Amino acid sequence: MNQQAIFAPFFALMLLTLVVWFYMYSRRIPFITGARLSPSQLTPLELARLSPPAVVNPSDNLRNLFEIPTLFYALVLYLYVTQRVDDTYVVAAWVFVAFRILHSIVHCTVNIIVLRFSLYAASTVALWFMLGRATVAVIS
């Protein structure tokens, strides 16, 4: 198995993070300038309180991309360094990333909570599968 195959979903998730980052600022900057917020209103708490969901949700999603996905990045690097990458890990990594992409789309747009949570849960199950499989391999 080509060990580097695991880096395609790895970089796809990084690209998603970049896209959400740009999207967040494309929503936030026009809101701040249009609302003519003062510097005292630009604290994280105050900005979140004043901002409409179309501005807050992309910011929340960006924050989400630095939570559970950090485990994914660490696990991918571990799998690569230990030469354990196989087709099962690569498919599971793509499942994780695909559901994270869908989660971000929902979170940044319509934000239907039940749908968003379902997508989040599906992505996380794929990651827990990868982590569990790697853990069993280490223990065995």
Helix- and strand-based class?
mainly alpha
Radius of gyration: 18 Å
The ordered string of helix (H) and strand (E) elements is HHHHHH
Number of DSSP-assigned strands:
0
Task: Quickly describe the structure.
This protein has 140 residues and is mainly alpha-helical.
How would you characterize the overall build of this protein?
The protein is 79% helix and 0% strand. It contains 6 helices and no strands. Helix 1 (7-35) runs parallel beside helix 5 (87-108). The model has no long low-confidence stretch (mean pLDDT 96).
Topology:
Elements: H1 7-35, H2 44-50, H3 53-64, H4 68-81, H5 87-108, H6 113-139
Key features of this structure:
mainly alpha; elongated
